Amino acid sequence: MLSLLALLPGLPAPPTDSWFEAYKTFDEIVTFMDNTDFTSRNVLVYQYGDPTKPGLLVLCTVHAREWISAMACPWVAQQLAGDDTAILETNAVYIMPVVNPDGYAFSHAPEGNRYFRTNRRPGSYFGVDLNRNFPRHWNSCSQWRRCSSGNVGSSSQTYRGPSPGSEPETRAVMAVADEIEATSGLVLFVDVHSYSAVVSGRYDDATADISPISAQQNVAGPKIVDAMNSIDGYGTTHCYQYWTAADWSYSADGDHMFEEYGQPWSWLIELRPQSSGQGGFTLPASEILPTVQEVDALKGCTGRKLALFTFQVCPG
């Protein structure tokens, strides 16, 4: 049964990188995060640091088939529970490692579908694309977004759902964000997906080009990309890119967070690879660790410490 648990304290994770040598199931991720074994699948959120400090919210595994995303949040948790705690001096960090637990479990199940994207909404061939279920621009179209792909019925993996915020997973994310905003303020939102090797400031309304925060993100974004490309030498053969808001074709959770909570920094991270020819959703397990390490680039580059990074020119 899907439900939202109370905020759970982040507990120390095993001090080893060997856990990241293979993809993990939902149960294995939960055990890694808090040393418990839940008998039901829940949308879980883990809190690191003082909740009275401004909050950073990190989501992973909104889409079931994006297994590398599911490995990224445990990596961030391991760093926060270890020695890499500088960010906790000024902020609390909230991690939702598997936003779509039922869909993720189905993608691992022998009777399931490795490339399943949506949640497991009853009564539909596919479920709901949680990214398209957030209230902002739920059923609208404009020159800034194509709407046909999300307007189709439940036979599509991009089905936006019967109504705004109809899905329990979507409501869970909004409830967590509401709680953070009410307690200390939500100042940074990061949504980790795959694949494309793209970083984007995630707000696609017509005001995006004149929004002060979007303008700042368009400066910060390329620097985050440079930092990610410098880790493990990925930028020598491939290249993360920065996309502006207008490069995307539909509204999503980042747009909702941007407007609903006083315009916090809202980032979309599409992890490697760049293309299906490089592995697509089935990125080799040997690339798990270097890929999740690239998420570290965000820790010092949220727009406040841009001087830490230098630009790197990508091949081609």
Description:
The structure is a single chain. By secondary structure, the protein is of the alpha/beta class. The protein has a domain at 7-185 and 276-299: Aminopeptidase (3-Layer(aba) Sandwich), CATH 3.40.630.10. Helix content is 27%, strand content 12%. The chain contains 8 helices and 8 strands. It has helices at 26-34, 67-81, 101-108, 148-151, 168-183, 212-230, 253-260, 288-293; strands spanning 8-9, 46-48, 55-60, 92-96, 186-194, 198-201, 241-243, 265-271. It has an 8-stranded mixed sheet, with helices on both faces. The longest helix is centred in the last third of the chain and has 19 residues, at 212-230. The model is unreliable at 1-6, 142-146 and 302-316 (pLDDT under 50).
Defining key terms:
316 residues, alpha/beta, Aminopeptidase, 27% helix, disordered N terminus, disordered C terminus
Summarize the structure.
Residues 149-160 have a biased composition (Polar residues). With 316 residues, this protein is of the alpha/beta class.
Please specify the SSE layout and strand pairing.
Layout: E1 8-9, H1 26-34, E2 46-48, E3 55-60, H2 67-81, E4 92-96, H3 101-108, H4 148-151, H5 168-183, E5 186-194, E6 198-201, H6 212-230, E7 241-243, H7 253-260, E8 265-271, H8 288-293
Parallel strand pairs: 1-2, 3-4, 3-5, 5-8, 6-7
Antiparallel strand pairs: 2-4, 6-8
CATH homologous superfamily identity of the domain at 7-185 and 276-299? Zn peptidases
Task: Using the coordinates above, name the CATH class of the domain at 7-185 and 276-299.
Answer: Alpha Beta
Count of strand segments: 8
- Provide the CATH architecture of the domain at 7-185 and 276-299: 3-Layer(aba) Sandwich
| Sequence stretches where pLDDT stays below 50 over 5 or more residues | 1-6, 142-146, 302-316
> Might you state the CATH topology name of the domain at 7-185 and 276-299?
Aminopeptidase
Task: Report the portion of residues in β strands.
Answer: 5-15%
Order of helices and strands: EHEEHEHHHEEHEHEH
Q: Please bin the fraction of helical residues.
A: 25-40%
Radius of gyration: 18 Å
Largest sheet: 8 strands, mixed
Termini separation: 49 Å
Helix/strand/pairing category: alpha/beta
User: What best-fitting shape do the alpha-carbon axes yield?
Assistant: globular
Mean pLDDT: 78
Spatial order of strands in the largest sheet: 1-2-4-3-5-8-6-7
Give the number of helices.
Answer: 8
Biased composition (Polar residues): 149-160
Signal peptide: 1-18
Organism: Emiliania huxleyi (strain CCMP1516)
Protein name: Peptidase M14 domain-containing protein
